[in-house]
Amino acid sequence: MSANPILPQTVASSVKQSATKVSTMPYVSATGLTSDEVAERVASGQVNAVNTSTSRSVADIVRANVFTLFNGIIFAAMIMVLITGSWKDAVFGFVILINTSIGIVTELKAKRTLDKLSILVAADYVVRRDGHDETVAHNGIVLNDVLWLRAGDQVPADAEVTDVWGIELDESMLTGESRTVRKQIGDAVYSGSTVVSGMALVRVTAVGEHGYAASLTREAKVYRKTVSDLSRGINTILKFMTFLVVPLCVLLIVSQIRTVGGWDVALATGAWRRAVVSAVAGVVGMIPEGLVLLTSLNFAIAAMRLARHNTLVQELESVETLARVDCLNVDKTGTVTDGGIAFDQLIMLEPDGADSGSSEQSAKQALYDLSNEAQPNSTGQAVLTGLREEGINAGSVIARIPFSSARKWSAITDEHNTTWYLGAPEVLLNAFDGDWTNVLHRVTEYAHDGNRVLLVAKTATKTVFPHAVLPQDGENEPTLNPTAQPVALVLCTERIRADAEQTLAWFRDQGVRCRIISGDNPATVGAIAAKVKLTGERTPVAMDARNLPNDINELARTLETVDVLGRVLPDQKKAIVQALHVDGHVVAMTGDGVNDALAIKEADLGIAMGNAAPATKAVAQVVLVDSKFSHLPDVVARGRQVMANMERVASLFLVKTVYSALISLGVVLTAIPFPYLPRHITYIGGLTIGAPAFILALAPNTRRYIPGFLQRVVRFALPGGMAIAISVLLSSWLLPGIIGWNLTDPADLAELRATNAIIVFVLGVFVLARVAQPLNSWRGILVAAFASIGIIGMFIPFVANFFALEMPTGHEIVATMIALLIAAVLFIICHVGVKLVSRIISHGKPTRQS
């Protein structure tokens, strides 16, 4: 303790401050740094400035959304078409602008929201400089500053205690341990912890990035983009197409140049432009640009819907990850509990040896008065709140000894000259006469059940106490009356969130394995897990993390049988996530403290509470702005809707990729003019793929995601793509001879391409109908509506001219109808054939439908 007494008088300080008045402080002899010393440290950069950015920078967000493989391919194709002067065939390039804008706007909105959240934790602090108290901002603190820490303050920098007046810190943000820690002179305090009670004068030992909290989260600050299974599948297709597109584009250009008479003719007549446009038609068709756009749109819509429920999605791709989560690790404090203390009950100790004349009502009145101090700590506040709800109000107190962490007890004398004590059971009982083993045994049992236990005792003998504000030299320290006897046990528990049990039950029903991971005592955490029915009717298996194996594979095996882990260190939380990955689990991790940052970053889906440390929110993909655990089921359900529906509609886009690749290959091998224009695919794709897929993707769907997205989509898309490709190639090979078209004549070539566009449109409607099943609902109306819109558009002059659409006339009608009939037969044959081959390969097992 300090050699300076705490005096009840105020000290007139010369205060340097902006607008806020510095609170009255105890008298101390420390002068702190001089103005010159502060200036020197500021000049040398020894200030408490730290990067508190809660998310990626604007430049990072823009760069991540602009420079993608998809944008590169589409942009290159668009430039090639624009060089030819055929801007109508370059409209597909607008998908780059739309897709990129969606990603940038959504992530910038999330960034702005997070930045606002981080401003809420900004605060001013009182430092001692030139012998006076002065208010400075967080960033104004310098190395070796003498800093006041008061109840409610968040420690802004690492420091060493030099003077102390019963200070207690909550270090749960750093350690996960919810119990408060009492500090003495010479003890270290770390940035990120919070002062619960008392006061101290400390000397700053580390500032800014050199602080403990900053060093703990340095690894977490390295940005790692979430890669969803859906995005991975699309990227796989794009990478494959990248290797295929470049040589195929060259071959297409060469083949189209030959169809117009060779390079000399093409360059002389300008026919090379038509060859380039035809080549790009094949290239663009192979790229599922609509799927990339629709994925971004659905992610953005899901993010906006979640935002209305105070759930902030920082990265769009994380929405899909929600659908795949099968393992959820939750932090106890801040997730299952709200970090507060609640008064549970008062248990009278009669007939265990206490005074049989004491009544529960008088014990409750004494408990209220014992807790009703000038500045009650969190436990005292919880007791007061609980007893007020029972109608207990303040009584008459003659004398009081305030609670002290050093003594671990407080006392009052009431109007009946009865002295009451409240404090730690082991401290009080050890000072009382008699054998209280049975009471200590009950205390231990309640503590193991997760309760914070206090003891109420009394003596009929009036005890004369010294002044309530005591000297700090140890003299006149009050002592317990050994004749006092225990009256009751006070049980306080961590306040469990009202929605915790229901939320955990939802995850359990959905097949998601939940574990509680905490820095607290495993017995305490296990008791809370049992209260919220973490494992249903089964008793949760709790384990001390200090007994966990270091080997990652052995740790993975251990975790399969463990539901609750206590005394977990930050590095262990990260190792636990890594061990779950060994067994192929998709892991979500919730938390609010700096000690959770590494594990949240390592998890497939990091979820931070809105009141979390800025570093923790920075690495999380999802932030529960109002810190409500009950939002998580809606978060997961929204992810499942997006993923299940995207798998359904992805087949539409992959069909186009398949038939475009096959048609391009057929064109190169047989040296025929390309059978349609890029604008044809834009029109057909918009009506049979893009627009209906967007509507289908928004339909309700709660199916849990099943791994193997790409394989199922490809298996579904192959028959439709093959049928369309074969039909268009047969039409291009046979119809000119049947009808007498001369494909060197632009007019005849335009008619062939218009006919092929009709074939692709009709078969596209067939594919849409198959994807939209069952059709005996709004889905059937959807298919009919888009089919009708496509036909009507061909009779609207502006639409027909812009997209180069023509209705067949005369003998062309018969040829077109025959071609459509053959195409329909091929469509059925391909679908049946692929299904039979799939069943043979899988030994007769039916394929899983998307």
Automatic annotation (TrEMBL):
Gene3D superfamilies: Calcium-transporting ATPase, cytoplasmic domain N, Calcium-transporting ATPase, cytoplasmic transduction domain A, Calcium-transporting ATPase, transmembrane domain, HAD superfamily/HAD-like. The chain crosses the membrane at residues 66-84, 90-108, 237-257, 277-301, 649-674, 680-701, 713-734, 754-772, 781-805, 817-838. Residues 126-219 form the P-type ATPase A domain. It is a multi-pass membrane protein. It is found in: Cell membrane. Its main location: membrane. SUPFAM superfamilies: Calcium ATPase, transduction domain A (SSF81653), Calcium ATPase, transmembrane domain M (SSF81665), HAD-like (SSF56784), Metal cation-transporting ATPase, ATP-binding domain N (SSF81660). GO terms for cellular component: plasma membrane. GO terms for molecular function: ATP binding; ATP hydrolysis activity. NCBIfam families: ATPase_P-type. This is E1-E2 ATPase. It comes from Bifidobacterium hapali.
